[in-house]
Amino acid sequence: MQNLEVKSKKIAKMLHQDFIESQLVVKEQEARMIESRKMATLGEMASSIAHEINNPLAIIAGNNVLIKRSLNEPSNEIDIAKLLKNVEKIEKTVNRVDKIIKGLRLFSRDGTLDQMSSASIDSLIEETLSLCQERFRTSGVLLSFETNYHGDILCRGTQISQVLINLLNNAYDAVVELDEKWVHLKIKQVQNELIISVIDSGFGVPIEIQNKILQPFFTTKELGRGTGLGLSISKGIIESHGGGLTIQTLKGHTCFVVKLPINQKAA
Question: CA torsion angle for 76, 77, 82, 83 (degrees, to 10)?
Fold first, then answer.
């Protein structure tokens, strides 16, 4: 009887150890999956990001030439006001590039091990939009944004940025070939919740697939154009923040809604 009890304990211990190891493997696979999707997203946006950086560089170079030309004129003919205007343009353009780089750093780093910290929602949105605005603009997709909340939120900033990029890119893919193409990002505070809505000019998601669309590997895109991971990863990230991600049809258009607890200490 004692031998049976000892064997049972050993088996239970082994099973418990196997369970812990399997959980670790699952977490590692999830982290790799998130990283893989992130790199795929960066690849999709690479050309527009390069264009977004090249344009400011051309502006800086052009204003630099004008400044040099002005400085070569006789001292009594130098237009100081004009010089200062050129310098101001360079400063604004440098700030624009800085936002893009901050957005890239925010999005590309691994945030899975980050602790929750207080983050400015305005900064998160600004840095995130800096990565995708050029892609929308060059394709003629109108991207608009409105908010009634300018405080902080307790979150893992890198992960929230990834969710926003995933939702915005998903909306972009849905409308880019339509005649009427627009995407609207809306943020509002409702009591202690932050509601983030991404609405696009698409025709909504059929009811029969609304429950499937947030599942891993489910995609409505053509073969080779989607992994079916972006939305399921986003759902997991938001749920790990104590929130939720749902899909709705709003006035005939597709609407993804993120709900996040603000946490009053961080607000």
Answer: -60
Identify whether 109 is part of a domain: yes
**How many structural domains does the chain have?**
1
Q: Give the domain extent around 54.
A: 38-261
Give the span between the Cα atoms of 49 and 56, in whole angstroms: 11
Cβ neighbours around 212 below 10 Å, total: 12
Specify the DSSP class assigned to residue 76: G
Judge whether 227 and 217 are in contact, CB under 8 Å. yes
> Which residues in 77-112 are b (16+ Cβ under 10 Å) and which e?
eeeeeeeeebeebbeebeebbebbebbbebbbeebe
Q: Count the Cβ atoms, other than its own, within 10 Å of residue 199.
A: 20
15 belongs to a structural domain: no
Specify whether the CB–CB gap between 212 and 235 falls below 8 A.
no
pLDDT digits (tens, 9 = 90+) for 132-188: 888 898 899 999 999 999 999 999 888 898 899 889 988 998 899 999 999 999 999
CATH number, position 166: 3.30.565.10
β-sheet bridge partners, residue 195: 188, 259
Residues 222, 228, 229, 232: is their CA dihedral positive or negative? Answer: positive
